[in-house]
Each structure stands twice: as structure tokens, then as C-alpha cells.
Amino acid sequence: MRIFVVAAALCLAHCADTQVVSFDAGTDGMAPSPPPMPPAMQCTPGTEQETCFTCDALGNRTVSTADPRCPTLPCSQFDGYRLVEDGAATACVERTHAALMGACTPQGQCVDMASMAVCTAFDDVERIRSNGPCQTINGCETGNPVLAAVEDQTPCPDGACADGVCVPGAPMGGNPGPGMGGMPEPGGMPGMGGMPGMGGMPDPGGMPDGGGMEPVPDCTRFPATIFCAEGTANGVDYCEFMSDTGNDEISCAELCSRHDSVCLDSWDNDSDNCDHDGNADCDDEMGTQICRCRR
Fold first, then answer.
1. Phi, psi of 16, deg, nearest 5
2. Core vs surface per residue 97-110: b (16+ CB within 10 A) or e
3. Which of 61, 150, 166, 285 could form a disulfide with 249 if both were Cys (CB 3.0 to 4.6 A apart)?
4. Which of 42-46, 242-246, 257-261 has the highest mean pLDDT?
5. Given pLDDT bands bounded at 50, 70 and 90, which one contains residue 214?
6. Is 135 exposed, middle or buried (0-12, 13-18, 19+ CB in 10 A)?
7. Judging by beta carbons within 10 Å of its beta carbon (0-12, 13-18, 19+), is residue 85 exposed, middle or buried?
8. How far apart are CA 262 and CA 219, in angstroms?
9. CA–CA separation, 294 and 257 (whole Å)
10. For 154-201, what is each residue's pLDDT tens digit?
11. What is the per-residue pLDDT across 77-120, written as a single tens digit (0 to 9) for each?
């Protein structure tokens, strides 16, 4: 309902000076503005105010950014893993968020719900890193990151990938192994040969059948049906061998660990030689596999 106030000075002849004011909520465009606050102090310095407010030394009542009376909120639901590109390499980074301690909103209220907007304190820890274009990281998003080699013959700077290593000048058809009796290039396949003795190490100085070779002295500690290669990949010396445990399935991570080493890579193997028949994870338990351990 609209109420009209008519102001007249003397009589109806002065009705042209009438001013109309609307009192409908939110529509009174002619209502006077509230009077300014008096210059007196709004609060007494040092006195406790309601939650999320303080009284400064000048007596101004201001909103706080934090108040211990507000609840502490967990932000762990935003923890996780993510892949981060770093030039030619990729890193798997674990992000851990700190709890939100008694935060206040700009309007002077306690933050009562955790969100990405308020859970801004976190730590990033790098868990694993690929070292070039011939490696990739699998399982980062699930918290189980492992390095894996990209497909052989994938182009890389000035060459092609072979077993996770960029081989400069290698033809696009692959990275051929060395000749008879020679040492393989890092990540490459040794030359062809014959089968070794039953379950034993290859004869000293000879190239056994099945693609094996004689291990260097510091690789002999690893259990191997066939020793496949030794070399350096991405600055890390390694020993690579085929493990045949039959029905007693075991992971390369366990095999390397038993000999004071760590697993760098693993491949499936069906042909009882040094062929990488399929990519695998270090934690995969298999009866026949190729294991690469740190030397």
C-alpha cells in the first residue's frame, strides 16, 4: 500500500509544491541517507569482541582473518598426485594440504566448510621423474607412479627410443644390438647367441643362446637364468637379467631388494631370452620376466 504525504504551505493554491515519498520496502529513492556515525570510538581497545572481530588501538572494530574460536577444518580431501611437465622430463608430484586453522570470512564469519578456495596451504613432494622423451610415468594419478619406457622407435632428439633410452643417430627401425661378443649399448639388446646351460650362468667369455651374455663382476650377485645386459641409463648403472621362477611368482622389486638394490624397470618375457615381450611394473609378480636393477 502506498501512503502519500502532502505538504501544503497555505492552501490548495500551493499544491504544486507537493513532495511524494514512497515507503515501500526497497523502493524509496527519495528517503534521506542514514546520518554519519558519530566520531566517538566504536569499541574500547583491548576488549574482547565477538568471533572474527577485534578492536584495534584506535577503537576501530575490524574483521579478523583468523580467530582461534573458529573450527579447525581438515583439507586432506584435496590431497593427491599430479603430473608436472618440466622441459623434456615429467615429474609425479604428491600434494599434501595443511589443515585450515580457525579462518574467518571477509564478512566476519567463521569458515565452516573446507574448499579448494580456502585450503591454499600445501606441500609438493616429487615422487618420481622421467629423464627424457623416451620414458613416461604410469599410475601417478592413483598414487602408484612407476617409470615405463615409451614404444621403441619413437622419435627422440637426433635419434629414436630403444628400451626407454634415446639413442642418437639410431635408425627409425630400431636400435640394433652390438656384434658377437660386444657389450650392448645402454638399454639396447645384446647380440644373438645360443641357450645357456640348464639354469646356470653362461660360460665365461661366451655368448649363450637366447640372447644372453657374460655378466660383469658386480652383476653376478643377481639371480639370473640368462644375463641380458649391463650399462648406464640416464646416469644410473644397471644390471639386466631374465628371472625364471616358474610357479613361484615374484616381482622384480623383490628380486632387486634381496640383493641390496632397487628395481629400475621390468618387462614381461615369454620367449626365454632377453626380448622385452611387454612392459611391466616393478611390482608385478610373474614367473618369467626381465628385471633391471641398479648396479
1. -65, -15
2. beebebbbeeebeb
3. 285
4. 42-46
5. low
6. buried
7. exposed
8. 13
9. 10
10. 888 778 888 888 888 765 543 333 333 334 444 443 433 333 333 333
11. 999 998 887 777 888 999 999 999 999 999 999 999 999 888 98
Q: How far apart are CA 273 and CA 207, in angstroms?
A: 12
Dmax over CA atoms of the chain, in Å, equals: 129
Choose among 261, 267, 210, 206: nearest CA to 238: 261
Cell numbers for 141: 594419478
The string of DSSP codes covering 70-123 is SPPB--GGG-EEEEEEETTEEEEEEEEEPPB-SBB-TTS-B--S--TTT---EE
> CA 146, CA 284: separation in Å to the nearest integer?
11
Which CB contacts under 8 angstroms, 24+ apart, belong to 47-53?
51/104, 51/110, 52/104, 52/105, 52/108, 52/109, 52/110, 53/108
What's the pTM value of the predicted model, to 2 decimals? 0.41
Do 276 and 288 contact (CB within 8 A), yes or no? no
Q: What count of other Cβ atoms lies within 10 Å of the Cβ of residue 265?
A: 25
Q: How many residues does the chain have?
A: 295
